[in-house]
# Entry
Amino acid sequence: MAGKVGAPKIVAPEDVDPHHDWSRPLQALGQMAVDFEQRVDFRRLHRYRLGRTRQALAKSDLGAVLTFDQHNIRYISSTVIGEWARDKMTRYCLLTGNGDPYVWDFGSAARHHRLYAPWLHHDHCRAGLLGLRGAIHPNVGLLRKAAEEIHAILKEEGVDKMPLGVDLVELPMLFELQRLGIEVRDAQQVMLDAREIKSQDELMLLNVSAAMVDGTYQRISEALKPGVRESQIVALANQDLYEKGSDCVEAINAISGERCSPHPHNFTDRLIRPGDQAFFDIIHSHMGYRTCYYRTFNVGRATDAQKDAYKRAREWIDRAIAMIKPGVRADHIAECWPKAEEIGFKGEMEAFGLEFAHGLGLGLHERPIISRLNSFQEPTEIKAGMVFALETYCPATDGMSAARIEEEVVVTDKGCKVITLYPAEHLPIANPY
# Structure
């Protein structure tokens, strides 16, 4: 049911406090529910995420947020219907400062939520369709009907005169909202504010997700032999992760030999050869919580140039990790990484993504984003409860090899904890001769 008009929802402290005791280690949980250990509490997770959203919304000048971003929908409503929905722009969620989440979902999924998502009001779980990115022509009127339905809820909950924050939107839907006199503003900053600090349950899920990749890298190390294709390593990793319980293997980079420099961010059917330097990035999620986890290997043997590239990449990432603690500014971390020209690029835009850090959660790129491209203009402050990945890249002097290392860290009250544990202190040699 709708909240009382003019009476903003009260956000209880327990709904937004991460509740993590930093004196205790992060648990390396299994994925089962058990009765003899306290593990992830998904209803507590929902209360926390909804509480954080309400808190961020209350601090803004928006009356409501309308989200089409799948990660924001899940964060607010704890609903998801599969990775296929990522680019369809057909699911959406509305939260006003005075009410509870509304979710418009694809066909029968709305009925499924009414049966199995009791944390949502039955009449707030509705079927919705905007036209599948224009495949159903706007003349049919689906967009207009949806905008009018949203406007009616905004009126009912007393926020129709306030700006509406929207994160992503198709232009025809934007035009329909504006036609009704709704002032549309950006909601991404509000949602990123909400998602910035992770709760105890989010930390556990991120840790489990990283632990799954620890094991996958063991499989990759064993399989990395001459004659194996990059694409076969990608297939192996996908199978291994799905068998472990991954809910989405979003992408796996597999780059070897002469493909390492410059970094192409993909994979091919290239054959692995003796002495290749090869690096991989595994991006997957467990219960929605993602990894971004690079490791570099040499196949059988390594040259001095390859070893030197790895040593420098390791020094750069260790220097950054040593700096991380609450109160440190992002620009100070960015300063410790090499400039674009030092690794062979013309400028920071061209080198972006090679020496940087990015927040992790339901999304792959949350706050903070730390790099020489943006952090000197936007010196974000590091806070306890943030989780982010740090990445470094160093091309070798042989003109083709390169080292790529990535570590995920949880910011604690005094420093940070690395949760990507596959050994990377020194260059790993897979199947040495």
Remarks:
- Residues 200-430 form a domain with the Creatine Amidinohydrolase fold (CATH 3.90.230.10).
